[in-house]
């Protein structure tokens, strides 16, 4: 039986391909043999010679599809795999071929389609190993689409359903990365800690766990406190969160408009007074909002910095 292809791994350089005409002839020849054999009486087909011809035709068609897949021609490869299944749906490695069809969508970046293919295959196959592979790539599809929550939940469910799976290390690793994206540092640390020590991913998972633990101890900026500081002193919240020029601008606008209002009041100029105080109300309100926004931006900046480090450490390929 043909070995089931890996769920995902590093992309390998495309193998040298035959000219397009030669590949087309190979495909047509394989299809012709399959059709001719399918039309033969069952008694004739039962002979050992005919069975060998069937195997050769199937191998030729499968090799052609694999060649297209290795050459990154995923749409054509998917078409050839589906053609193979339509002729012989009960071939021994049908699950492997269906997995390749789903992989074609995944490699082409059609993650929704890929996820649907993998879900159907996981529900139909009787192979526990194939189910685990499908679940892993379903989680990878969610991760690729930045749906960190769905990816983490899928990894967690899959690991709980198959605690002895050989893919447990990848599942927990991917769960840890997903939870880091969500800012769930303690949960991320727990997922990385669950990667088996004998796994090749263990060293980097420990490093990522340490990064998550340090992130957990980092105190996030408080939008409420920052807004309150800017309410008292215009621009103070922005400045304390690292946005100095935003703070200086907020102070100048708020203080300047207030000064205009006070000047107009002291001179008995109602128009100048009204304009000054109206501008102060607008600019100071914006300043308070800017203080809260500065805290949120600072937290986002910190999170992005942590994730840049995490992606640099990560050894898990999703290709």
Task: Give an account of the 3D structure.
The protein has 319 residues and is mainly alpha-helical. It has a domain at 223-313. It is 76% helix and 0% strand. The protein is elongated, with a radius of gyration of 31 Å.
Fraction of helical residues: over 70%
Q: Show unreliable segments.
A: 1-6, 9-20
- Report Rg: 31 Å
**What is the succession of H and E elements?**
HHHHHHHHHHHHHHH
> Structural class of the secondary structure composition?
mainly alpha
Number of beta-strand segments:
0
If helices are DSSP runs of H or I spanning 4 or more residues, what is the number of helices?
15
What's this, in brief?
The chain has helices at 20-39, 42-45, 48-70, 74-87, 94-107, 111-124, 128-144, 148-161, 168-181, 185-193, 202-217, 223-232, 236-240, 244-266, 270-313.
